[in-house]
Amino acid sequence: MNLADFGRFSDPALLILSSLADGPKHGYGMMTDIETMTGVRLGPGTLYGALARLEGSGLIKAMAAQDRRRPYQLTAKGAAALREQLTILQKLASTGLKRLAAL
């Protein structure tokens, strides 16, 4: 599964998968983690829409609710998709930085 298949929703998906890479989190936990990591604040509609798409694609799975909060965790398929996307982004960043250094 390529996150680009999510079209305009690929950025929130990448942020969510990156947040879940260090362990399960519920929605608010992901929102605060993503904001801490990137400065981006996902709105609830964006977050929960992306969670539904990611769960439907088998990239994350919902866990049993805890005190009305439902945590999500990364699946093996999700980890592979995240690794693939981050490798592409790493190559892009490295190339861009080398080109900037030549200016």
Written overview of the protein:
With 103 residues, the chain is mostly helical. It has a single domain (3-101), classed as Arc Repressor Mutant, subunit A (Orthogonal Bundle), CATH 1.10.10. It is built from four helices and two strands; from the N terminus they run H-H-H-E-E-H. The chain has helices spanning 10-20, 27-38, 44-56, 76-101; strands at residues 60-62, 72-74. The protein has a two-stranded antiparallel sheet with strand order 1-2. It starts with 9 loop residues before the first helix and ends with a helix.
Number of domains: 1
- Please tell me what the overall shape is: elongated
List how many beta strands DSSP finds.
Answer: 2
Helix fraction by DSSP (H/I, runs of at least 4)? 55-70%
CATH topology: Arc Repressor Mutant, subunit A
Strand content: 5-15%
Separate helix tally: 4
Described by strand count, sense and barrel closure, the largest sheet is: 2 strands, antiparallel
Class of secondary structure makeup: mainly alpha
Instruction: Output the CATH class name.
Output: Mainly Alpha
Distance between the termini: 37 Å
What is the overall pLDDT average? 90
Adjacency order of strands in the biggest sheet: 1-2
| Low-confidence regions | none
- CATH homologous superfamily caption: Winged helix-like DNA-binding domain superfamily/Winged helix DNA-binding domain
